Amino acid sequence: MAREYPISEVRNIGIMAHIDAGKTTTTERILYCTGRVHRMGEVDEGTATMDWMDQEKERGVTITAAATTCFWKGHRINIIDTPGHVDFMAEVERSLRVLDGAIAIFCGVGGVESQSETVWHQADRYRIPRLVFINKMDRMESDFFGVVREMRERLGAEAVPLQVPMGGEGNFKGVVDLIEMGEILYPEEDFSLNYQLQEIEAELLPQAEEYRARLLEKLSEYDEGIMSKYVEGEELSSEEIKSTVRRATLTGSFIPVLCGAALRNKGIQPLLDAIINYLPSPVDVPAIRGITRKSAASDCLTEEEEERRADDEELFSALAFKIATDAYVGRLTYLRVYSGKLRSGDYVYNPRLRRKERVAKILQMHANKREEISEIYAGDIGAVVGLRETTTGDTLCEEARPIILESIHFPKPVVWVAIEPKTKAEEKKLTISLQKLAEEDPTFKVKVDEETGQRIISGMGEFHLEILVSRLLKEFKVVAEVGKPQVAYKETILSAARAEGKFIRQTGGRGQYGHVWLELESLPSGGGFEFVNKIKGGDIPREFIPSIKKGVEDALESGPLAGYPVVDIKVSVVDGSYHEVDSSEMAFRTAASMAFREGVRKGSPVLLEPIMDVEVVIPEEYMGEVVGDLNARRGRIEKMSSRGAKRVLRGNVPLAEMFGYATALRSLSQGRGNFTMEFHQYREVPEEIRDRVLEKQW
C-alpha cells in the first residue's frame, strides 16, 4: 500500500487553550467542515466527537487528548485536541512533544488567561510554530485588539493579525481578510458554514488598510523583496504575502492571528486554509535527533547524536507518547513516526527494554473510534495494538541500528488519597485497574505505604483524582473506599552536613562490609536530586559507586520529620573504605542509606509544601471578600488587573488551604467568580503550620 498523501501535505497539529476557550467546539466545526463527521457535536449537550469519555460528557470538559484525522484541499491534517484544565497538563505535554504545529485558541472576552500562558510557554519550550484563533467574537465584551495586545504584553509574542473582525458582540458578522483585502461575510439567517467573499465596505476600509500596512511592515523584516516593494509602494500579490507569512511563521517568531465564532460556524474555513498555508509539514521542522547505541546488546552509549529525517526510506524510528485501554482491542500505544515506515505484523525494537515486540494491528484513530490500516509512514500519528511492555516516552526503532529519542518529562504529583477495596474479592480487580490507569497517565502514581499497608494514589490536583476515582468506580467497576485528598509534602535540608555510614556484619563465613562518608548540600527549589562521586584513588572501588547511589535513592523516599520524600539535595561521596573479601554491593547500599539518613538529621531538616499559582476572576463588588479570604488562606496577592468588567487577582496560595475553594468562591461571589490554579513551587512550611502537619491535626 502506497502513501496516500505526500509527506509535504501532512499537518500534525494540536489545539491548545485555557479551559472554556472553545477548543473542542472549534475541533467539532473543523471535522464537520472537512466532511469527517456529518453532524456537529456540542460540548454542552455531551455530543462532542472528541469528548467521548463519560466523565467528559458529564462535566463538559476535555480530560484526555483525543486524536483524529481530516482532509482539506488535498492535505491530511492530524489533530490532537488537548485538555485545558491544569490537572491534565500531562496530556498537553505529551501532545506537544510529537506535534509539528499548533493552534492556540483565545477567548475574545477572557483574553490571555492563566492556562493560556502555561500552554504557550510549553509550546515555546518545544519551539512549535503556531497560529492564533481568537474565538467567541460574538460574545458581549469581546475585544479582538485587546487580546492581541495582551498576547504581546503577557506572552512576548509577535502577534500579527491576518484578519480583523467585522462588528463585535451580537453584531459580529464576519472578518476582513488583510491578505486578499476582502470581506468574508457569514449569513445571519442560519448557522451554516457558507460564506461570501466580497469587497470591503467603505467604513471598514481605513482600518483594513492600517492593519494591512502593519502586516506588510512586519513581513518586510523577513523578506527583502517584500521590503523593497513595500517601501516603493508597489502592489504585492496574495501569493507573495502568503509565502512570506509561511516562512515567518515557521521561524516561530511570527504569530498569525485570525478570529471568529466557532459556535456560530464563523471563521472555520479561513482557519483551515491557514493551517495548510502556514503551519509546517513534517519535512519543514528540524530532523529528530537521538542517541545511538554501539549495538543492541551494548550498555555503552556513543557520545555522538544521530539525525533521522522525515523520510519513508529512512530507518524506522517512532516515539510512544500515549498508552490507552480500549474496551474492544485492549492496550493501545499511540505513536508518532519520525522516520521510515511500519507495517502490521512487523517487530519493533525498544532500546529501554532491550527487546522486540510485535505490532499486531495498526489503527488510525478518530477519538474513540478506530480504522484498521496496514501501514503507517514517516510523519504520521497513529495507534498500534500488541505492544504489552512499551510505556509513555519509549522509543521504538530497528534493532540493527537502535536510537533513543528524547523522552517526555512530566511534573510530580502534589495531592494523594488512600484507596482500599471494600472486600477481599475486589483486591485483585483494584490492583489491575490501578495499574492500567497508571500506564495511561504518567502523572498518576500508585504506591503502598510501608507502615500502614494502605494503597496511596497521587495526582496533579483534586479534580484529577476525582476523575480517576470516578473511572475506577464506573469504568472499571471497582468497589472501593476512598479517603479525603491530602497534600503531598516533601522534606529537605537547610544546611550542609557530613555523615558516616558503616555496615559491618560477621556471620562466621563471609561477612558484609560497607563504609562511606557523604556530604549533603541543599539545592534551590526544584533542584531535585544530584549525586557526585568525589572519591579519588582506591578508597572505594568504582564498581560499588552505583550501589552507593542506589542506597541514597532508597533513603530519599522517607525523610526524618514525617516520612515524606526528600528533595532539592546534592549528595557527594567523599570518603570510605572497603574489605577485599567482605565488601559487597548490598553492604555499600545499606551503608549509604544509613549515612544519608544521619546527614539529613544533621542538616536542619524542614518540611516543604506545594504552593500554587492561583488566578481568580470576579466582579468588582466582591473584591474585598475574596481578597480577605485568600489572605486567610495564607495567600500572597501579587497582581490585580482588569479583564473587561471583571477584576483578576493573581497570587500564590499553599495547596493545603485550597481544598474546597470552588465552593467557597461560589458562596463569596454569588456564583459569579471562577478560578484556576497550577503548581508553582515547593516552599518551606511555616513553623506553626509544620507542627500541625507533623502532629496530623489538620
Explain this structure.
By secondary structure, the protein is of the alpha+beta class. The chain folds into five domains: 7-278, P-loop containing nucleotide triphosphate hydrolases (Rossmann fold, 3-Layer(aba) Sandwich), CATH 3.40.50.300; 288-293 and 306-405, Beta Barrel (Elongation Factor Tu (Ef-tu), domain 3), CATH 2.40.30.10; 415-486, Elongation Factor G (Translational Gtpase), domain 3 (Alpha-Beta Plaits), CATH 3.30.70.870; 491-603, Ribosomal Protein S5, domain 2, CATH 3.30.230.10; 608-694, Alpha-Beta Plaits. 26% of the residues lie in helices and 33% in strands. It is built from 16 helices and 38 strands. The strands form nine sheets. A seven-stranded mixed β-sheet has the order 2-3-1-4-5-11-6, sandwiched between helices. The protein has a six-stranded antiparallel β-sheet with strand order 20-19-22-15-14-23. Strands 25, 26, 27, 28 and 29 form a five-stranded antiparallel β-sheet that branches. Strand 36 (636-643) and strand 37 form a beta hairpin. The radius of gyration is 28 Å and the shape is globular.
